[in-house]
User: Fold this.
Amino acid sequence: MSCPRVRTIAGVAVLALHSAACHTADRLWRISPFEGSPASDRINLWPLAYHNGSEISVLWPLFDVDQRGFALRPLMAKDGSGYSILFPLASFDTDAGEGWIGPFYQFETVKGLFPLANFGALSWVGPVWWSEHASGFFPLAHLGATSYVGPVWWSTSEGAPIGGLFPLAMFGPTNYVGPVWWTAGGDSYGFFPLFGANLFGSAVAHVGPVWWRADEEQGFEGGLAPLFAYGNGGRRFSFLPFYSHDLGPDARTRSVLLGLGHASRAGEREESWLLPFYYHRAEPGRSDTALLPFFWKRTRGEESDVYTLLGNRTVDPASSTFNVYPLWWSNGERDGSAWKMLVPFFYYGREADERTLLTPLGGRGWSTSGQEAFLNVLGPLYHHSRSVRRDESRTAFLWPLFERHRRGDERTTRIAGLFSRTASPCESETTYALGLGHARSTASGSSHRLWPLYSWSDDEELPGPVYSLTLYGRRSRGDTVRQRLFPFFSSERSADRSAWYALLGLLHHEREGEPARSESWWAWPLISHSSGGQPGIADWTALVGSSRWQGGRQFQLGASLLFARTEEESAKVRRANSRALLFFTHEEEEFVGAHVPAAESGRPQNRIQHRSRGFLFDAFVSERSTYHAWREGALRADEARILRAYSVPGAREGLPDRAAVRTVLAAHGVACADDEPATLRAALDAFTQANTETFEHRRVRIPLLYGHERSETERSWYGPLGLVRFEQDQEHERFSLFYYGYRSETKAGHTSRDIFPFITWDSGPEETRWSFLWRMLRYERKGERLGGHVLFIPWGDA
Assistant:
């Protein structure tokens, strides 16, 4: 779909704009004196009438016709397969299958009902939207590698989590509390903004906003910045304290309002919350959903638990439980046994053929065979019973204040809700202080808590979510130990990783591997540094941020507002991007590996070197690009696509085909010595080097004043406001002055000129022709012959 080209022409500008339907706009200017190649017998009475070959225009732009179609504006226009009807009501292209009719539209892979719905790379229905890498409910939530819900935000980079409570604290390799910051080992420290020593371990120091570093190789560096960040092609972004995201390949995280709202997805694991009310986590075989303090659902495999303020329900393969606090309690087993209790009125239990009934006034136990297990006649004062099989007994005193129950090797003791303990040879579990205290011991470990003061556990799984809601917590599993002291400190330590956070993440230090494969630290919003991985959000939003990773490095000042530079280098490409004060930009890119060009010479895939300098968001720009292309006639287009597809796996040209590559090379006299891929690759590289060439493309733009572009075969420039313009390629040369006040075109030695109004002047080898008002006054010379018209009366023999 070509976009309308709007020209300012006195007296007809409003009508022209109304007529410029997107699928038929080209013909508006094509059938006029301003475009196309002029014919020798053309009639130029524009805008009243214009005739040039098969093109006819009457009362431009109301009516025109040519071999491609017609236009009767504003009712209807047809240009090839493009149609416009009562533009802008409808415009479509029947061959491309794109356009719109009223609010319904379709363009390439995008279609929808404007503005309610859209389906394509970015899709939405009302406030719900989604794309290949993200989704959300605008403007409340956003789900991806970086997620947000409320002010809580978090992000993961290569599996390493970072996050915080903006702007008080941040946890990572660098740690800070207020203005005081330091690093592990104490080799870097400071009191921002008064002073700092050895920032990032790179000999950078500062006093106030002034910083400096003296380096023997790089010389002296020095200078002076925290709210906006952008990096990694837009996959990391933050606008604190409102929003942040991290869209990684394996994990997607978003957060809003400093982490109060959160949503993340990592593989098959999902986690979201809206503090302090909502929390959700789901992964294969387990999930948790809570709406505090009203609802909590917990699923582990086939086991499911639901808790509310009124009661709870538990279902697993072996049993089910239903309770309504504080009166009704019940449990049922798959083997048919069950018990029910309505406090303080009765208890009823069933197991196999045994039955038990307890009330405050007494109780009775029996079996369906008629045997009696117990008879209680003392009411709530005392009760004792034993099962017929002698594998179960129950003793109660002042029931339900005290009760002791034994089943096989398992023993349970309860004291009026204040204390409960169940023990067996394999495990034991104790609760006390109305459930605030809890302890459990199993074959895999033990756990203990006293809410809300502390909790600790070395078991494989925590006994419940309350263990994660205490002020102090410690959990160990294998060689990994996690500790926290909310809201001041948290840490995690294992054999190859250590990390700690302080003051809700404002201070952070993290190290992976011994020796360190990656390390990050920050004292936000003053300083941040990371190594071994891509820059994180803290590296882009701190006053001073830097990062180093394999093949690249990054440095910024003033949260990237004052200065930012990123450098990357691999076996195939080198890139460097710099930005100063948001307005000055500098970009460099160079491909250094073997390169097999695409079929079309000017394709972006063929650019092997690029340098660009810009100012004011690239309104002022100077660019130089080098392209690598096949020599003319060296290959057919389909052969070039075969070689490109093999050299660049995943290229849009198609799938790699080794046999087809051998066939193409053999057709051009290149034979491989054997069938090894390395041999074929070497032959392809040698053939490419012998049959390709490079050419440069330069571009300069000064808005409204001057523009210039030049390549191997084309050149163009324009002057102030486009009043003067020049274009040249291998076949044509065009020049215009005062837009179309004067226009000339040269092709194959022949030059055609149009001078407003109504004057034409053509010249070529041994011929000259000029006219005014067509044949009102016309002169023509061809060799020795002369002729023309005066007041439409012919004269001469030309």
DSSP finds six helices and 80 strands in the chain. The radius of gyration is 40 Å. The CA atoms of residues 418 and 435 lie 8 Å apart.
